[in-house]
């Protein structure tokens, strides 16, 4: 037994590596799976773009074809409100989506400066053997080092990094608002079409176009809960295409609202913590290591914006440091609040290559700086 213990001790001594963690072991085991996944994401990237564009276009077409005629029966102020709101959301969604798709996230410099490596200003990427600025990460799908990389999003076929992070979060925000708007606007039509009296039959679309007499779904007016207004389609026939379109747009938008709402909330939470998605995973390991040593670990919340700070209700010493330093995220280089509500191409804070030190409050405490990946 003693000999076995000695052999085990010798084995652990020879194979021990302080840099190896549970996450590293799991990543190594699943490396083939990750490589296969990255390959399919890279190949199917354009298809994901077409899916997003196709689904968005279908919702817009259905809105003009079936929802707008109902909205036009409202009072004039409500019609104006709907037209302005719908087109404001549509313009922002289209603008921010194409900007996040076609804007480079920011790439690490191609040339290698030995002085920067010697001084410790930059590290060296082990995969592309090029200098790696702080907070940058090598994307296994794009095969390049991205500045302040958050993640690779297949729905935009691009990485989310320093120069398009604002477009990404703005797109998620406005798309979420847009799906909420369409869901609420179509809710009464959905109730009418989904819970109608099945004694009535739907008439094929061809019969409606040929001018044949069509029976409506219901002989009772529907009460519009949103605007406290009745609208009556007794005199109008309901085609199969209208029935299917109303069900489709409500189910699609309500589902996207739930999924995208969670995603947007999560990214706002990360922005509030001053982390990217990659840094969040790394900082979990750092915090676990610090707890084992009896130390506290705090992420220097240095890279978020005042707008998100106010939205999350963050107060205290960090907020004062934030105001003193003038560090902003969405508000970077913004001269007017309208630039947050309307399409804007103002650049983000900083160049993505160098980052200021942590706030004074974090520097004074016994914490490690933000983990750089």
UniProtKB/TrEMBL annotation:
UniProt subcellular location: Membrane
Catalytic activity: L-cysteinyl-[protein] + hexadecanoyl-CoA = S-hexadecanoyl-L-cysteinyl-[protein] + CoA
Top EC class for this record: transferase
A Gene Ontology molecular function term of the record: protein-cysteine S-palmitoyltransferase activity
Domain Palmitoyltransferase DHHC as annotated: residue spans: 121-282
Record membrane topology: Multi-pass membrane protein
Entry keywords, A to Z: Acyltransferase, Membrane, Transferase, Transmembrane, Transmembrane helix
TM regions (residue ranges): 39-66, 78-98, 167-191, 246-266, 303-323
Keyword ATP-binding among UniProt keywords: no
Pfam family, one: DHHC
Domain notes: The DHHC domain is required for palmitoyltransferase activity.
Full protein name: Palmitoyltransferase
Organism: Pocillopora damicornis
